[in-house]
Specification:
Mean pLDDT: 93
CATH class: Mainly Alpha
Radius of gyration: 18 Å
Order of helices and strands: HHHH
Strand content: under 5%
CATH architecture: Orthogonal Bundle
Structural class: mainly alpha
CATH topology: 434 Repressor (Amino-terminal Domain)
Distance between the termini: 63 Å
Number of strands: 0
Low-confidence stretches: none
Length: about 70
C-alpha cells in the first residue's frame, strides 16, 4: 500500500480509508487513479455514485418524508 500511496502522491491513511470503505472516492482521487492506472475517472465516479445510491436505498426506512401532494383544481 505504501508504493500505491506514493504513486498516487497521497498519504497511506487516505488510501487506507478509501480501500477500507471509511471514505468515498472524490473527483480528485479519481483523477489520481486515472493518471496512475489508466482507469477513467468518469467510470470510477460512476461506480462510486452507484455504490452510494445502493447504500442509501438500504437505509431508506429511516428517512421519514411524506409525498408531495398538489392541491386539486
Amino acid at each position: 500500500m505504501t508504493e500505491a500511496a506514493r504513486l498516487l502522491d497521497i498519504g497511506r491513511p487516505a488510501l487506507s480509508q478509501l480501500l477500507n470503505e471509511r471514505g468515498s472516492l472524490s473527483p480528485e482521487m479519481a483523477l489520481r487513479f486515472e493518471k496512475a492506472f489508466g482507469v477513467k475517472m468518469d467510470v470510477l465516479l460512476g461506480m462510486q455514485a452507484r455504490y452510494d445510491a445502493w447504500r442509501m436505498r438500504a437505509q431508506s426506512g429511516r428517512i421519514k418524508v411524506k409525498p408531495f401532494m398538489t392541491a386539486g383544481p
